[in-house]
């Protein structure tokens, strides 16, 4: 569902070999028939107090859908979002190349696809412009290459008929089989948006019911093999995609996430940054947002169905408030929250991902890549050489997951004098210093040719090892968790869906409590 690089891998193959039509499920109301409408609200209706910890995809979606469902079900809510950082978006954020607000670059979640219903619908609803990626290489280079640390095992220029024939010759039926397997698997996942599956209480049970467990319990390699999809297509193209999207080789990532990495039809991004979706969601929700205010503890209020949330403001002031519902919308292990009264959700291993952004007038050198053409592809994904089995967790001889030119810019050096520069992005498991960039450009170690650079180490996504069970969303009465979804599928859309699911469960809980109370006290209003 993700990076531009992987989008091009599969789009290129798709465009070459076949066309897909994935039908979107029709929208369905998630709160059923609206039986709540028979109840009359009066001033006695208690305002529901909700704390949301984290303003990323999950937290902002939880706020947005909570306000929508509560409004439809006629509950008054008072929601507060606590955010540790000084921005909205979490792992979906941009930085400005050259410190120029006209040149934002995605530092985290970059791409979503049209079947990502929450994001796509929100983008349309909020009228956010979709980014245009433009055409091919600015210099006429190949669009894409897959490098194994020694040589390019595959390059694509523009997908003409000759390349089509070469691909068919090389990969046989595997691309078409992959396409239909992706469609089938993603089709099952899409059922999670609609009744009767949505809203789900147990992710584990849902994965079982949707027959996605066979995909999550096997490695990508096993899952593909059991569907008659073989190397070199798997080890060259699909693995290049799991590496750029999840920093994992095919023997180290589960089958479902491997399919997601190949689900790239109609990829898109929001002009100026995908975080704009989450910003709009929060704005629309009317929730109060407390930026730079990390939550430090959550404790149960004795003898009450409520929670005390403590947070510290930037100036050191401590905030303490009571809530009916608390949504932890971040991987708990990274929140530094303490609690004596909650059982911490499962700790899962996350991939450390170094993102290196830089700008330079230079292109990468063919010599570094042992390439016999004058220009290396604009987008270089990597895979393992055939001598290394895909069950390794290591990056292999390539040492990085991907490097690509995001775009070229015409920079004004002085009045009337412009030159072309390239903005690059590297994903690697280890820190990627300037010297290594110069080496990739075949320049001396002390060359000083970066006109801008920015680095960030992320806990980007879990190491998606095969598994049969998943952390459930409800941790306790009135206590919810979104990040269990990440071991199933980790991306902006699924985290948004996880937030939406929690919101729906909360409002369903309120609705059934109101219904029960009305049955017990038919004369009273609630
Ligand atoms: C480099 C990179 C590339 C990616 N590429 C893609 C892509 O192309 N497409 C895609 O769909 N996905 C991509 N992803 C994944 C995607 O960005 C994430 O899955 C998604 O953004 C996670 O959203 P979230 O809300 O669950 O968590 P987060 O975004 O991590 O949000 C959690 C928030 O909680 C806050 N927080 C934590 N602790 C506290 C506390 N104690 N108090 C208050 N606030 C707290 C954090 O500051 C953060 O803002 C990428 C991720 C990375 C890092």
TrEMBL record:
InterPro entries per record: FAD/NAD-bd_sf, Prenylcys_lyase, Prenylcysteine_Oxase1
Any one GO molecular-function label of the UniProt entry: prenylcysteine oxidase activity
Keyword Magnesium among UniProt keywords: no
Cofactors, names only: FAD
Coiled-coil regions listed: none
Domain Prenylcysteine lyase: 161-513
Keywords per UniProt: FAD, Flavoprotein, Glycoprotein, Oxidoreductase, Signal
Gene Ontology BP terms: prenylated protein catabolic process; prenylcysteine catabolic process
Phosphoprotein listed as a keyword: no
Lineage top rank: taxon: Eukaryota
Record-linked PANTHER family: FARNESYLCYSTEINE LYASE (PTHR15944), PRENYLCYSTEINE LYASE DOMAIN-CONTAINING PROTEIN (PTHR15944:SF0)
Family stated for the protein in its record: Belongs to the prenylcysteine oxidase family.
Protein name: Prenylcysteine lyase domain-containing protein
Phylogenetic classification of the source organism: Eukaryota, Fungi, Dikarya, Ascomycota, Pezizomycotina
């Amino acid at each position: 569902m993700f990076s531009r690089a992987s989008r091009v891998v599969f789009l290129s193959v798709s465009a070459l070999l076949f066309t897909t039509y994935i039908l979107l499920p029709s929208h369905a109301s998630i709160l059923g028939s609206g039986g709540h409408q028979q109840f009359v609200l009066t001033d006695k209706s208690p305002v529901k107090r909700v704390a949301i910890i984290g303003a990323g995809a999950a937290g902002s979606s939880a706020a947005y859908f909570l306000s929508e469902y509560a409004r439809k079900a006629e509950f008054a809510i008072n929601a507060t979002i606590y955010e540790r950082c000084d921005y909205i978006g979490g792992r979906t954020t941009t930085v400005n190349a050259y410190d120029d607000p006209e040149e934002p670059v995605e530092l985290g979640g970059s791409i979503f696809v049209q079947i990502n219903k929450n994001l796509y619908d929100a983008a349309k609803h909020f009228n956010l412009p979709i980014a245009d990626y433009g055409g091919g290489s600015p210099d006429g280079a190949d669009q894409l290459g897959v490098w194994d640390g020694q040589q390019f095992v595959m390059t694509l220029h523009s997908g003409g008929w000759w390349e089509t024939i070469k691909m068919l010759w090389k990969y046989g039926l595997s691309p078409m089989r992959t396409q239909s397997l992706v469609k089938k698997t993603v089709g099952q996942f899409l059922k999670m948006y609609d009744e009767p599956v949505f809203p789900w209480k147990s992710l584990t049970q849902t994965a079982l019911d949707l027959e996605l467990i066979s995909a999550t319990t096997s490695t990508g390699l096993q899952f593909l093999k059991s569907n008659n999809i073989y190397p070199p297509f798997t080890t060259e193209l699909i693995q290049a995609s799991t590496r750029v999207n999840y920093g994992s080789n095919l023997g180290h990532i589960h089958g479902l996430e491997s399919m997601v990495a190949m689900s790239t039809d109609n990829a898109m991004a929001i002009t100026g940054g995908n975080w704009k979706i989450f910003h709009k969601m929060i704005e629309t929700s009317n929730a109060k947002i407390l930026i730079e205010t990390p939550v430090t503890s959550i404790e149960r209020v004795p003898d009450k169905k409520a929670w005390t949330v403590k947070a510290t403001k930037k100036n050191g002031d401590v905030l303490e408030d009571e809530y009916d519902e608390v949504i932890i919308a971040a991987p708990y292990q990274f929140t530094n929250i303490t609690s004596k009264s909650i059982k911490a959700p499962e700790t899962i291993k996350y991939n450390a991902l170094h993102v290196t952004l830089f700008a330079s007038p230079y292109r990468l050198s063919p010599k570094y890549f042992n390439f016999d053409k004058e220009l290396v592809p604009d987008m270089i994904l990597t895979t393992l050489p055939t001598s290394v089995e895909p069950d390794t967790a290591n990056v292999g001889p390539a040492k990085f997951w991907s490097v690509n030119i995001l775009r070229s810019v015409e920079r004004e050096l002085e009045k009337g004098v412009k030159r072309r520069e390239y903005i690059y992005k590297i994903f690697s498991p280890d820190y990627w210093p300037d010297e290594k960039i110069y080496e990739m450009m075949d320049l001396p170690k002390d060359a000083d040719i970066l006109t801008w650079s920015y680095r960030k180490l992320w806990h980007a996504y879990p190491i998606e090892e095969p598994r049969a069970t998943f952390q459930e969303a409800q941790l306790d009465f009135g206590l919810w968790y979104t990040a269990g979804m990440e071991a199933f599928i980790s991306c902006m859309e699924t985290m948004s869906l996880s937030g939406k699911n929690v919101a729906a469960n909360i409002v369903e809980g309120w609705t059934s409590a109101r219904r029960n109370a009305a049955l017990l006290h038919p004369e009273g209003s609630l």
